[in-house]
Structure formats: structure tokens, C-alpha cells
Amino acid sequence: MEFVDLQDRLLFGIPKKGRLNEQVMTLLQGADIQFHRKNRIDIALSTNHPIALVFLPAADIAQFVANGNVDIGITGQDMVAEAGANVEELLALGFGKCKLCVQAPVDSPYKSAKDLVGKRIATSFSSLVGKVFQELDAEAAKAAGLKQVENPTLVQFLSGSVEASCALGLADAIVDLVESGETMHAAKLHAIETILTTEAVLICNPNKHKTNPLIEKIKRRIEGVIVAQRYVLCTYNVPRSQMAEAVKITPGKKAPTISALETDGWVAVSVMVLKSKAADVMDALEEIGAQDILVTEIKNARMG
Ligand SMILES: Nc1ncnc2c1ncn2[C@@H]1O[C@H](COP(=O)(O)OP(=O)(O)OP(=O)(O)O)[C@@H](O)[C@H]1O
Ligand SMILES: O=P(O)(O)OC[C@H]1O[C@H](OP(=O)(O)OP(=O)(O)O)[C@H](O)[C@@H]1O
Q1: Max CA distance (Å), the chain
Q2: Do the beta carbons of residue 116 and residue 155 sit within 8 Å?
Q3: Where is the Histidine biosynthesis HisG C-terminal domain (predicted)?
């Protein structure tokens, strides 16, 4: 096998497959981190930065970053919590958003996690869930005036297809991720408690952030890509008399840029607007007499 020289390169852990992979690839492209990944090789050298991309299971990235095996990485906050990893969260990325929920069969009597003390729980998050039920067991014991409960809750690890475990008789309830709820409903389960909400994050080894300026550069670039994905640029002309109203509709991230027009009594405004609100904003601007309202895509951004 060819030897890959990683010396002097920042090691960047990237989810090698699964839910986060595609969006991370888009971020890298937007941040102009170029690389060529040979077929099935999990380390790719960047061709325009001293960076090596290390393709890893999302579940391992937090621990790898905490241990300093890689310097930075992208994974879910759920994975960081499950690993109990000591990492610095540099940036929330706005995708991979879901909730880690306790789910019970819809026809079961369980209404909250407390009702499951002493029962069997299947999950891929056995460390996190183990801690939650240890606490619930301890609370139940205390309430009953005991040192510990007779039947501690059994938390079993499953690496996948967790939602099938109640129907299979393996567990009384599960703890798994929920986004649309489709998987949960299809398995005739319902959420009875949320353990955490999560999204994808850029993380860094706490000792590396200050020592390598490239980390801050990558963070700023990725931040720019995210802003560009989320916002559009809106420009319009509006009578000066309506300027205060216009600023209320489009306050901008900091403030709108306003310049005088040659035509007396009019100003030109340039301002960032959330992509999801752009159509409503255009309607509202039109209603107060704004003209020549244009909305354009932002390719990239650097914010103050
Ligand atoms: N339905 C979902 N919606 C949004 N984000 C999700 C969803 N499922 C998982 N995620 C996020 O993506 C991360 C990786 O989940 P994924 O299921 O892709 O795991 P994986 O281990 O990378 O892949 P695989 O399950 O294929 O082995 C999760 O830790 C979570 O942060
Ligand atoms: O609420 P939903 O939108 O249905 O999403 C939730 C599902 O998504 C994840 O699994 P994924 O589809 O990534 O496959 P996996 O079970 O192989 O991890 C998670 O483990 C749930 O099963």
C-alpha cells in the first residue's frame, strides 16, 4: 500500500457515509477545500491546503478528536454526547437536526421515561441512555426508601434497526433519533420523552484550536458557506419617507446598507434576508411602496 505522508497536515475527520456525508461534502466544496479521494481509501490529501481529510464513521469522530488522533471533525452533537468526548464545539452547522427520544409502543401503558424503570430499553446510545436510567433508577429507589431498585433498568446496545426491537420482543421501549417521525410511526411507536436535540457540529481538539491558525480559517470559511446557504441578498428602492418601515421589514443581520438615489426623495437599500422569508419580505416591501425589489443568491460570505 502507498505510504501517505501526513506530516504538517491538519487532520480533518469527515463522516465517511450515512446522513451527514453528503452535506459535509457540499460544505467542503463551498469552503474550497479541494481533494482527490482514491477509490476506497479513507485518507485524502487536500490539493490546495495543508489538510488531510480522514473519512471515519460518524460515531468515532468525537473520540478521535478528543484523543488528538485527528485535529478537527464534523459529527452530530448526539455522537459527542454519547462518546462523552472532551471536544470544543466550534460551529453548529444547521443540518443533521433531529431529537433523541424515548419511544414506547403506542398501545403500551408507558407515558414517560420514569414508567420504564426496571424494563428493557434497546438503543445505539447505550452510554447516554445508561446514565439517564441509572439516575431514574436511583430516584425510584429513593422514593421507595431503598438503597437501590430491585430490578435495575436493562439498557441493551443495538447497532441498528433499533425501532424493530419492541415488535421482536427484545425490548419494552427504545431510545432512537427522530426527525420526521416516519420511522417511529411505521414501527407503531410514539415519543414519550426527549433526551436531547442535536445537529451536526464542527468540533476541535481543545488543545489544538489556539495552536493552529488553519483551524480558525476553516471555521470562518465554513461559516461563510452556511450564511450563503441560509441568506439571500435583497436590494430595492424606497421613498425616504418609508425608510423606517422598510428597515423594520428588513433589519438585516447587523443593519441594512442605505444609499441616496439621484432621484430626489428615494433611497436604495441592500440587505441580507433569510431565504425562507424572502417571498414574504418582498410582499411586505411592495406594500409600503418599494420598487425594483431584487433578490439574488449569495455565493459566499464573510460576516463580522
Ligand atoms: N433522521 C435523521 N435526521 C437528521 N439527522 C440524523 C438523522 N439520523 C441521524 N442523523 C444525524 O446523523 C448522524 C449519523 O447518523 P447515521 O444514521 O448516518 O449514522 P452512521 O453511523 O454515519 O451511518 P449508518 O447508520 O449508515 O452506519 C447521527 O448521529 C445524527 O446526528
Ligand atoms: O424520523 P425519521 O425521519 O424517520 O428519521 C429517524 C431515523 O433516521 C435514522 O436512521 P437512518 O435512516 O439514518 O438509518 P439507520 O437506522 O441505518 O441509522 C434514525 O436512526 C431513525 O431510524
Answers
A1: 83
A2: no
A3: 228-300
Distance 83 CA to ligand 2 centre (A): 19
Q: What is the CATH number of the domain that holds 151?
A: 3.40.190.10
Q: Indicate whether 158 belongs to any domain.
A: yes
Select from 20, 60, 157 the residue to mutate for testing ligand 1; criterion: most ligand atoms less than 8 Å from CB. 20
* Test site for ligand 2: of 177, 188, 199, most ligand atoms within 8 A of the Cβ: 177
User: What φ, ψ does residue 159 adopt, rounded to 5°?
Assistant: -85, -15
**Looking at the predicted structure, is the pLDDT value of residue 241 above 70?**
yes
Residue nearest to atom 12 of ligand 1 (CA): 19
Residue from 163, 179, 189 whose mutation best tests the ligand 2 pocket (most atoms within 8 A of CB): 179
Residues 255 and 174 placed together within one structural domain of the fold:
no
Contact residues of ligand 1, CB 6 A cut-off:
15, 17-20, 57-59, 76, 78-79, 96-98, 177, 179, 198
Q: Identify the CA nearest to 30 among candidates 257, 280, 217, 224.
A: 224
Same domain, 81 and 23: yes
Q: What is the pLDDT of residues 63-96, one digit of tens each?
A: 999 999 999 999 999 999 999 999 999 999 999 9
Quick one: which atom of ligand 1 is closest to the CA of 19?
Answer: 18
ipTM of the complex: 0.94
Q: Residues with Cβ < 8 Å from 92, sequence gap 6 or more?
A: 199, 200, 201
Residue 274 sits at φ, ψ, to 5 deg, of -60, 130
For residue 253, pLDDT over 90 is answered with no
Q: pLDDT tens digits, residue range 116-175? A: 999 999 999 999 999 999 999 999 999 999 999 999 999 999 999 999 999 999 999 999
Both 107 and 74 in one domain: the answer is no
Taking the centre of ligand 2 as the mean of its atom positions, its distance from the CA of residue 79, in whole angstroms, is 14
Nearest ligand to residue 198 Cα: 1
Which residue has the least CA distance to atom 20 on ligand 1? 18
